[in-house]
Design goal:
The protein has 296 residues and is of the alpha/beta class. Helix content is 33%, strand content 27%.
Length: 296
């Protein structure tokens, strides 16, 4: 194994169900089995499931909160400045009727309304968004789980807290949320390299194109793992060649792989050669992309 400094690797996909958690958990297991100090962060905060593949003891947990305004109606003059300053329509006001309310679900916690109020009528309170859990695994390795609260509109703050909890100074694998919206961007922005997992179907290619375009704008290096090879057609491979994107690994469309994953087992349990394949994958990423400079 090449000597290397800590590297942050995001495992992502344009849509759910392509196999990114399969890749993330098997890569993580391979690295820790080879005494490479590594943390896995489950950034799929709406439905985290990476912990299902590992035995671990809950070591730490903490709530992630956001400050939201509280309006004292006895001090409020109903001038409407807080309403004007709010870019998210999180304040409802009817001055003639002297009605003013905070719509907490729409609030982004920016604090603009508090700054706007010149009468001291607005204070703030913490509103829970979710929870970050850190599990200690065998061999002093750790798994961090970001889990958003039901009904919260965005998991971004919870994801950022989970990645921060993983810290620096070691290799970090981030199991990214599906799609290419804000949660995806907040995850891959902290990565040195992004592994995109897709499948060789028209649907997979369409989502891959969106992911690649997003990463291009972010100037993030990426490579692709094709899962369920044997399905679809060759168009995805043509796209990789056209865009000069490295094909890092292929995982065949086989019933025993799906069955092993569904049982919460690792691919090496099916065939020990998979551990070598995931080690080779890690080696390719290191050789092509160097070291981490991200300290957030």
């Amino acid at each position: 194994m090449t000597d290397h400094k800590p590297l942050k690797i995001a495992i992502a996909s344009g849509k759910g169900g392509t196999g990114k958690t399969l890749v993330a958990t098997n890569l993580f297991h391979t690295l820790i089995s080879n005494d490479i100090k590594t943390s896995l962060v489950d950034c799929d905060a709406e439905a985290p499931n990476a912990k299902l593949f590992f035995e671990g003891k809950l070591e730490k947990s903490f709530a992630v909160t956001q400050q939201v305004p509280v309006i004292d109606e006895n001090l409020c003059t109903y001038c409407g400045k807080c309403y004007e300053y709010c870019h998210y329509n999180a304040i409802f006001i009817l001055p003639p009727a002297r009605v003013i309310k905070v719509i907490e679900d729409l609030c982004h916690g920016c604090g603009a309304c508090t700054v706007a109020c010149k009468f001291g009528a607005i204070t703030e309170k913490p509103m829970p968004l979710g929870e970050v859990r850190r599990y200690a695994l065998e061999g002093s390795q750790s798994l961090v789980e970001s889990c958003m609260k039901t009904g919260v509109f965005s998991p971004v703050a919870v994801i950022k807290a989970g990645i921060k909890e993983a810290g620096n100074g070691q290799t970090v694998i981030m199991d990214a949320p599906p799609g290419t919206s804000c949660p995806f961007i907040q995850t891959v922005d902290r990565a040195d390299f992004v592994v995109l997992v897709t499948e060789p179907t028209p649907f997979g290619l369409s989502d891959l194109r969106q992911s690649v375009e997003t990463l291009k704008r972010m100037k993030k290096p990426c490579g692709v793992i094709v899962n369920r090879t044997g399905l679809g057609n060759h168009a995805l491979y043509d796209f990789l060649e056209q865009e000069d994107i490295p094909l890092l690994m292929e995982i065949p469309f086989e019933r025993n792989i799906a069955h092993t994953y569904a049982q919460g087992r690792k691919l090496k349990d099916l065939d020990p050669a998979w551990e070598t394949r995931f080690l080779n994958l890690f080696e390719k990423i290191i050789l092509e992309n160097g070291n981490s400079h991200h300290k957030r």
